[in-house]
Amino acid sequence: MKKFCIFILALIFLFSSFNVSARAMTEGKVINEETGIQEQNIPDALNPIKEKERLIEYVAKNKDIVYEHNNEKLIKLSVKEPIILEFDDGSRIEYHLTIHENPTNILNFTSKTFATTTSTKTYEVTKWYYYVAGWATVTLYADCTHEGRWVIMNRVYDGFSGGFSELVSHGTAIIKEKGFNSTCAIGEGWGEIRYQITQVGQWAYQTYRLQIWVDPAGTAYLKELTP
User: Fold this and answer.
1) What's the rounded Cα separation, in Å, for the pair 227 and 222?
2) How far apart are CA 200 and CA 198, in angstroms?
3) 202 C-beta neighbours (distance < 10 Å), count
4) 34: left (phi over 0), alpha (psi -120 to 50) or beta
5) Of 159, 171, 119, nearest to 143 (Cα)?
6) Is 88 in contact with 53 (CB distance < 8 Å)?
7) Rounded to whole angstroms, how far apart are CA atoms 51 and 212?
8) CA torsion, points 165, 171, 177, 182, in degrees to nearest 10?
């Protein structure tokens, strides 16, 4: 009987300790009244306010990647050099560009003296959130046709992968189908990511909204939007 009582007391202590730990994940958070964002107990990379601040700092130090198009400020993406935003708590955000090119190019003779080359490419922009205990990646794909001075965005779709996270809602759209000369075709993706811990449950969430701009020359640009 004595051993049984000790066992019961041990169980009570174990569950009370777990409840304290679980409450620690959900209590003591400061909610910004304007944004509704939890400003404490979440990694910096998951806080859109700090993300925006760090992105502004990054662009200020790398002015060569800033591109202004019709009063829109865009960030020029490079296959060779990802954009990496590092935060004080060790978390970070990375943007990666990959371009998949169809090896088959078609030569179109529109007249006896003029010919254009048609090619198809898939532009893949991946936004990676890394916060030590887990990670999440959102990828926006844009299938485009390049023909002469034109670019046509045929399809936009998205992808997701993560650890201790899930994509609960998302969508994509073609904002501008065609670009000519110096103008761009535009695709957009948006969604909501929820972060969870086993036996504790959801402890943070965030929304995202970003655009990919593609010009006829095959250059891709990023535009971050407020969800």
Assistant:
1) 15
2) 5
3) 13
4) alpha
5) 119
6) no
7) 18
8) -40
Nearest to 212 by CA among 159, 142, 112: 142
Half-sphere exposure of 1 (CA within 13 A, CB side): 0
Helix (H, G, I), strand (E, B) or coil at 3: helix
In angstroms, the CA 117 to CA 128 distance is 35
Q: What percent of the chain has pLDDT over 70?
A: 74
**In degrees, to the nearest 5, what angle opens at C-alpha 175 toward C-alphas 128 and 58?**
35
For 98-125, write each residue's pLDDT tens digit.
999 976 556 555 545 455 678 999 999 9
E-assigned strands of 91-216?
92-101, 106-109, 115-130, 135-147, 150-163, 165-176, 178-180, 185-197, 201-214
How far separated are the first and last CA of the chain, in Å rounded? 60
30's CB contacts (< 8 A; 6+ apart) are 38, 39, 40
- Give the strand pairing for 150-163 and 178-180: antiparallel
pTM score: 0.78
Burial grade of 160 (CB within 10 A; 0-12, 13-18, 19 or more): middle
Q: What is the Cα–Cα distance from 21 to 165, expressed in whole angstroms?
A: 20
Q: Which residues pair with 64 in a beta bridge?
A: none
Q: How far apart are CA 162 and CA 128, in angstroms?
A: 9
pLDDT higher than 70, residue 80: yes
